[in-house]
């Protein structure tokens, strides 16, 4: 039996698609069924269930709000993965959880490898780093997968924001000084599932191929939907956001690709498939 936490989000929804297709039994939970920030609730939930794999798709992802809402951010991003890893350890289950490119400070000019030293700039980034460190320290049958700029059909994301903005505005300005790789939650789930089946535990990076600025991503999605407005460039400093973002945080996925023996699709290909899924 597989347990999915955060099952209603982008990644959790796509994992359910894959497991349904593979005809694999799973339990899908979100906060209403299981509060993963409550250690006792996790322990009680596991009683009488033969859970072999735990896939933690739950997270606190509001980067700016986290600067003020740090307590719940740390509970979800640091404490909850640790509690789930401890539960997995007791039963010998495989544990999978996710981290972020925001563990890096963005000062590098080449894609970040798993061996690069983290230096998060925000509370969100620090909470994720502490979560991944806690899991890897306590349990050696864990996968920690860092990813970036996730978008999927099941929730709001940068793509949906841009589409909504385009409906209300004839002119948009998007930052061109944040560079990473937009990552399709479906591809993240597919490659994670491959990795889980390999049984090669540890820390991995997974993002779609090539890199883009937020401006590049917006331009591509707006062209896909046929928007006729004017798109301009902006800088991060123009918006005075509470949380600092890394300027460059593209992840190097070579380790994962070599492990599973398959290349991750380019981000533009991922956006193409996402737009088809949106059916707009």
Automatic annotation (TrEMBL):
Residue ranges crossing the lipid bilayer per the database entry: none
Pathway: Carbohydrate biosynthesis; dTDP-L-rhamnose biosynthesis
GO biological process: dTDP-rhamnose biosynthetic process
Top-level taxon of the source organism: Bacteria
GO cellular component, one term: cytosol
One Pfam family of this chain: RmlD_sub_bind
InterPro entries: dTDP_dehydrorham_reduct, NAD(P)-bd_dom_sf, RmlD-like-bd
Keyword Oxidoreductase: yes
Gene3D superfamilies linked to this entry: NAD(P)-binding Rossmann-like Domain, UDP-galactose 4-epimerase, domain 1
Domain RmlD-like substrate binding stretches: 2-278
Keywords on record: NADP, Oxidoreductase
Entry keyword annotation includes NADP: yes
EC number: 1.1.1.133
Catalyzed reactions per annotation: dTDP-beta-L-rhamnose + NADP(+) = dTDP-4-dehydro-beta-L-rhamnose + NADPH + H(+)
GO molecular-function term, one example from the UniProt record: dTDP-4-dehydrorhamnose reductase activity
Entry coiled-coil feature ranges: none
Entry similarity comment: Belongs to the dTDP-4-dehydrorhamnose reductase family.
Function: Catalyzes the reduction of dTDP-6-deoxy-L-lyxo-4-hexulose to yield dTDP-L-rhamnose.
Name of the protein: dTDP-4-dehydrorhamnose reductase
Organism: Flexistipes sinusarabici
Encoding gene (name): rfbD
């Amino acid at each position: 039996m597989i347990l999915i936490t955060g099952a209603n989000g982008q990644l959790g929804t796509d994992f359910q698609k894959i497991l349904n297709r593979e005809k694999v039994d799973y339990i899908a939970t979100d906060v209403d069924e299981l509060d993963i920030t409550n250690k006792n609730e996790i322990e009680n939930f596991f009683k009488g269930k033969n859970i072999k794999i735990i896939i933690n798709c739950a997270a606190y992802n509001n980067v700016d709000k986290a600067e003020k809402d740090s307590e719940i951010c740390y509970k979800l991003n640091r404490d909850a993965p640790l509690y789930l890893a401890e539960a997995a350890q007791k039963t010998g289950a495989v544990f999978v959880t996710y981290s972020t490119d925001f563990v890096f400070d963005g000062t590098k000019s080449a894609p970040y490898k798993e061996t690069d030293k983290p230096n998060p700039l925000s509370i969100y980034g620090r909470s994720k780093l502490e979560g991944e460190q806690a899991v890897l320290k306590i349990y050696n049958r864990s996968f920690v997968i860092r990813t970036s700029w996730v978008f999927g059909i099941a929730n709001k994301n940068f793509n949906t924001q841009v589409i909504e903005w385009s409906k209300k505005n004839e002119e948009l300005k998007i930052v061109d000084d944040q560079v990473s790789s937009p990552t399709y939650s479906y591809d993240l789930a597919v490659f994670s599932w491959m990795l889980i089946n390999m049984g090669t535990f540890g820390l991995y990076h997974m993002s779609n191929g090539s890199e883009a600025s937020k401006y590049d991503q917006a331009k591509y999605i707006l062209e896909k939907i046929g928007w006729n407005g004017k798109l301009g460039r902006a800088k991060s400093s123009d918006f005075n956001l509470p949380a600092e973002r890394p300027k460059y945080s593209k992840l190097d996925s070579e380790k994962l690709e070599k492990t599973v023996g398959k290349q991750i699709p380019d981000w533009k290909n991922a956006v193409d498939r996402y737009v088809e899924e949106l059916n707009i």
